[in-house]
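Q: What would this complex look like in 3D?
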Amino acid sequence: MQKITREILIDKAAFLLSTGVVGSVFGWRAGEFDYDVTPALFTDKTDLKNNFVFGDFCGANVSKYLIKATKNAEEKILVFLKPCDTYSFNQLLTEHRFNREKVYVVGIPCEGMADVRKIKEKAGEGILKISSTEDGVIVDTLYNGTISLKKEDILLERCKNCKSKKHVAYDELIGEDGTVLENDRFDEVAALEAMSPEERFNFWQNELSRCIRCNACRDVCPACTCEKCVFDNPESGVENKAAYNSFEEKMFHIIRAFHVAGRCTDCGECSRVCPQHIPLHLLNRKFIKDINQFYGEYQAGEEVGSRAPLVNYTKEDIEPNDAVNKGDK
Amino acid sequence: MQVNEFKPKIVAFCCNWCSYAGADLAGSNRLSYPADVKIIRVPCSCRVNPMFILRAFQRGADGVIICGCHPGDCHYTSGNYYTRRRMALLFSMLDYLGIEKDRMRLEWVSAAEGAKFATTMNEFTEKIISLGENKRLEDLRCKK
Amino acid sequence: MQRIGVFVCWCGSNIAATVDVEAVSQALAKEPGVVHSANYQYMCSQAGQDLIRAAIKEHKLTGIVVCSCSPRMHEMTFRKTAESAGINPYMVEIANIREQCSWIHKDILTGTEKAIVLGRTAIAKVNLNAPLTAGESPVTKRALVIGGGIAGIQTALDIADAGFEVDIVEKNPTIGGKMAQLDKTFPTLDCAACILTPKMVDVAQHEKIRIFSYSEVAAVKGFVGNFDVTIKKKARYVREDVCTGCGLCTEKCPVKKVPNEFNLGMDTRRAIYIPFAQAVPKVATIDADYCNMLKNGKCGVCSKVCTAKAIDYEQKDTLIEEKYGAIVVATGFNPISMEKFDEYAYSQSKDVVTSLEFERIMNAAGPTQGKLVRPSDGKHPHTLVFVQCVGSRCANCAEKGKEYCSKICCMYTAKHAMLTRDKYPDTDVYVFYIDVRTPGKNFDEFYRRAAEEYGVHYVKGMVGKVMPEGDKLMVRASDLIANKQINIAADMVILAAAIEPDKSARSIATMLTASMDTNDFFTEAHPKLRPVESPTAGIFLSGACQGPKDIPETVAQAGAAAAKVIGLLAKDKLKGNPCVASSNELMCNGCSSCERVCPYGAISYVDKEFRGPNRTVLVRRVAQVNPAVCQGCGACTVACPSGAMDLKGFATKQIMAEVDAICK
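A: Here is my prediction, written as structure tokens for the whole assembly.
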């Protein structure tokens, strides 16, 4: 799947380290299994050579990690950003979350990242090795032998609906830059909108009641970078957790989606990391769809310094009562 | 008959400069509206955090209405424009989650519109009564 | 824990008739924090207030809830009562049980029940109230007026006459503005110079007024009462303190072909010039774009002829820092460009002129010494066509014109037509109009005189096209009343160009954080009740920068702005509203969301050091609210995702407590 190899990136990183352009490298660290990849900071060349990986499981959006990494960094940090990561990168810059001068961005192309859940569903347990092919992966398993899977069957949801292969921020690019893509990412939202309120309620009740409030969606979200999250702050009045199928979970997700509305770049990390497989991106996308429809197309992160729709207005904006009644005859 | 027994809880956020004054005028003119409506005074409708609305629903409110100055008349020049955007998105989201969209409303009521305030509250309360108790949103743990 | 006292007012029978006040005070006595609960006939009366004061002392109360009429009525009263008994006035909350309860509910059971809930809600809030103190800031007793036209001049004079220092910043070499270019003024036809230039002299001679001519505002910091302004004085290459304004240099300068902007380019001036005879300050200015000495170091004639030794080719732009308590914007207007109005052949024929150009032609000090001649051949015109609303009221031509009415055109066109007919009875004068709008004292009478006594042909309809043919201008127009097309072979066509705010206004508005409308006119704090104040505290509006205005209106508004400035400068200290936003720096992300929604520019950012783990120091960008500028709307509190921004007096926790109390 990925056309670019880890060797190219390691060479690039080694070169930038040795020439003194950067002092460390942010990328992905290999784990025990092929699919078990973690974002990590590399300061040591040997460590980089041995443990840096790039492949079909490097879906993690590393932009957010730069806030912490740049804080005490003396030298520039090299970061490899996929096209979708660059949107989050810009959005963070818009919000002054880190110093651009401390980062050296190498834009890398992306062919779409694999969803290990989908692979596990198809290949079963006991995965020994996953190797990339031109249009998919070959999985060696303990129990089911070797299985070949097609790319369209194993892509992450957000990659199936990839919105852009274009890098909106970089100091240097590896390979050719892509373009903003036509996509169907709002289809699922539209399908939900077409349902009756009861159906929608049942749908969300079913999805959100699985929430275990592990906060993974918040922790991974590149828009959720608050010094202190309202959900961790006893002063905020919304910090309490619930263990029952109640409105509490909905409130958490509504407030979280509202807090990132207009700032969410639709990177899809929330859904990727949710251990309960709740399609959280459908909440954020609803806001994006509404924003586009009510206030004109807006892509968070496309441009550093752009004014998010919720801190903006026009005198002719739609009335909320009309906004919710737009579907009614 | 049972429907008439239902006493809804309705929270009305009113901006100090227009809508709260409009409510005062309704009072001065003895224009009645249901006692189920309780007003919270805020400096501007833009002070209303979506969290307050969710909180109200969570604690058992059956309807929430936000009232502010008409667009262009905001005492703070632009506050209600932000309110309009925030509420459009919030209401649309709640509707998307399957919550009855008529439980929340934004109305522009000027200080001169005492009659409009009373009519709005009468209509809104009627609507909430017809929707019945807010079961979908209420946090079960908060019930006595 | 608070010690709260509850005071239920009967308001005679206004409340007591439909609310069982005794039941309310008993019920509220059981609420958390309440240590005393009473009711009385008239709480706002002297006796009622004494009762509150006595209870404060006796029960050592820390918070007060008054269940009475609307807080808009007596909140102030009870705050003062509390203060006089030694509690912070912001520890008082009002439960509105009259307007919101007793007056609208007829059933005593319903009324009582609701009154209890409203009281409970106020108690829940007071439990979380904190004492608030209004900040005080000193006032710099000096005003800045940006723009030296008639608006700025009048404002400056009025402020200075009240005894305060005023500085005028004017971007041109002289004050006077548009009015200095006018010939006569409607509806009385006095000559503009005759009434304006004495005022210019008054300004120059006023001991409280300083003029920074050929200067611009470069930066503004601070807030109401305490503005720090940087003024850029552009190099004029002539020492202002030495130049006597004799004008010899302007006669000897060899560069003669510089378009004269004062006459709108209809004649020329030298590279060193004094805009007009009565200029203030009457000091020469070298136009660096044309001066040979400045361009290539060859010439120096002006320096040689100047006996006062005022020429200084080495002069540089200088920056002046000054402090002000108030700033008045008087940046005025300009006619819009006629370039896009090809249908009127403005760029094809010299004989198609704008009204301001016509004003210069008619002016005795203008390029033709006041003789009405065609700019193309100097011949006397016989047929003149005036076209109204060129670019005004132009809803469907937004790309070249303006949607609004420019307001002054109907009257000055009537003036032009009347003066033309008066001086040259052999002329035929046509005025094409959509409507004639004359709402001003003696305005309609003036217009009727033009039409009836002076025989000006007013035609309701618009000109479709002007085509130069030989030495004539063929005007094709429609007469809507006769419902026919008319063609006129005219000698001159005069266009009443729409007016727009001066281009400098936008950047000034940004510096001042003063809001503008979509047309770049400054917005007023309230369209009816605060028409000369900007929503940004300490910024005032004078003249056409706020909207199209004629001279009488401009002068009236200039005086009104001055009155507001005087009212501000007369204070030694400004007491703020304590219910302002404040940011918890430990929680602030520095994301700028709050700054973007703040209508007052009250929020700024600082890099602040925070102690991190292991004795490290982290520098973070955090928001700070200037309490003197914040008006307490709360827009920022919702924009803030982390909840770092909160509003004093209407804190998130307080409002949540009210919500909970209502929903209980």
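A: To summarize the key features: Chain B has one domain: 2-135. The first strand of chain B starts at residue 10 and ends at 15.
Q: Very helpful, thank you.
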